[in-house]
Every structure is written in C-alpha cells, then in structure tokens.
Amino acid sequence: EEPLDLADALDDYLGYLAVERGSSANTVQSYGRDLKRYIAFLGERGIASPEDVTRSDIEAHLAGLTDAGLAASSVQRAASAIKGFHKFMVGEQITRNHPSANLPLPRRPERLPEVLTHEQAFALMDEPFRPELEPRPRVLRSGRLDARPQAAFHRDKAMLEVLYGCGLRVSELCGLDVRDVMLDEEVLRVMGKGSKERLVPLLGTAERALATYLERWRGVLSASGAAGDAVFLSERGTRITRQAVHRMVERYGRLVGIEGLHPHTLRHTYATHMLEGGMDLRTVQELLGHASISTTQLYTHIDLTHVRMVYLEAHPRARMGS
Fold this sequence. Notes:
The chain is mainly alpha-helical. It has helices spanning 6-19, 25-44, 55-67, 72-91, 118-126, 148-166, 170-175, 204-222, 242-255, 263-276, 281-288, 293-297, 304-314, and strands at 138-139, 145-146, 181-182, 187-191, 197-201. Strand 1 and strand 2 form a beta hairpin.
C-alpha cells in the first residue's frame, strides 16, 4: 500500500476534526487554510511525504509567517494546526516521524482588550436611536406601507443593548432563539462555546429594548421570510449573520465617532464595567462563559487607574507614608 502523502493526510485530518472531534466549521476551515499553506511551503522545499519533514522545516515556516507580517495570534494558530496534524499522523500510523513533538507554541503577546468609557457606551446606545431619527415606513408600489426599516432600527438598538448589557459573543447573539429570552425571569439562556449553556441577567435598558423589539418589530421582519425561531432577523426575514452584526456595530460606532468598533469590544467593555462596579472575578467568569478564570483575569489589568483610586479610598494605610 502506497504511503499517504501530506495532502491526502490533510484530507483525513480535516475529516477527523469535523466528525470525531466535533470542531466547528470555522475551526476546520481556518486549520485547512493554515495547513494548505504549510504543505505548499514544504512542497517548495521538495517535501511531499510526512516521513521527510524535520523540525527545522516547521520552524522555518513559522518564522516565514512572522516575517510576512502575520499577527502573533495567527502564527500561534498555524503552529497549533501543524502540531495537531503531525500528532494525528503519528496516532493513525501514517508515519512514525514526529517533528513537532515538544515544539513550543509561539507566545501570544497579551493584548489588553480595548474598552469603551461609560460615556462612549452610553452614546453608542442612545444617540443613534433618538426618536426623531427613527426611519419612516416606505411606501411600496402597491401602496402598502413597508415598516421594515423601522423594525431594523429597533432591532439594531436591541442588538447593541444585548451585546453590551449581557456580554455576549457575536455567535451567541446570532444563535439566540425566541424561547431563550425569558422576560419574566429577566434572564437570557445563552449557548456558549462547546455547547455549554449559561443564564445571563437581562435587565435595564437591554431588557426594555429587547422586549420592545420582540413585541412590536420582530413580526414585521419575520413576515418577509422563513424566520424560524431566531430572535434577530435580517430584513429578508432570515436569521441575522455574524457578518451583518459586525457591519452594524462598526456603522453605529462610526456614527458616534468610534472608528473600527468591533462587537467583541462591547463584551470586553461589559466585563470591565462589571468589575469596576464591584462584581467579583468568579461571577464575571460565569457570566462571560469563560472555561478558565485565567481568560477573565485579562480584564483585571485594564483599568489600573480605577483600581488605584478605589484602593486609595478603601485601604486604611493607603495614604500613609507619603
């Protein structure tokens, strides 16, 4: 039997990730891209067989990615993909050569998440949604009124309020179904990473904006398509996509003078404002759906000026000795 070359082994590996590991389509796609680029690099060095790959080949490839200006996080993901691929080939007895064993992953520089101030967050939620800015219904050729622009206006307000008010990831926002919104209990049921479910408080302006949208405007959008159970719908009546949410957040950010605003910034802002308000780290970890508290701890480094002020006010010996 002919030994598998790297390209054939890659097909097997991506199949294994999708089926046996249950990896998301996004993960399989990005690993596929990273590994095709890696195999192309090896091909340029005349290497097509798993037997012939050396550790220095892998290190040269990763160094090339860094030199090409790839972000440290992208190089780290490529290294993870390569390690996983070689481990799989050894496990499946495609090869006994294991050049990536003990290969250290490139360190990811700890980038502190960007965070909005309270004033910026309030401006984003309020200024674009003043009553006088609400679009008028369109008059269609048939003479009927089309209220979808109005419905989209209220939907956008609700999405921004929920991103900041509940700290959701974009995929979690897009995945919300109507039954996940428990207005009476004032909670959202959220399906997080690894299909882990959590309950998140839904209060204040986020609850009000979401209730208004569900009671008055979702029906306007659902009339135009196959809505299913999705909470947030496009003007075609389909479940809103992640790309649409990214565009929406960026657009409203620009309206209030925040360039390049990303939905994840609203999640970071939620966590930071909660910690500043006195919530403990464990509770924030639960609310964000972080598997490890080390992920949540990133937020504790952010607003050291705030921490310093609180410390000065709180600690009995803080002002002594100066």
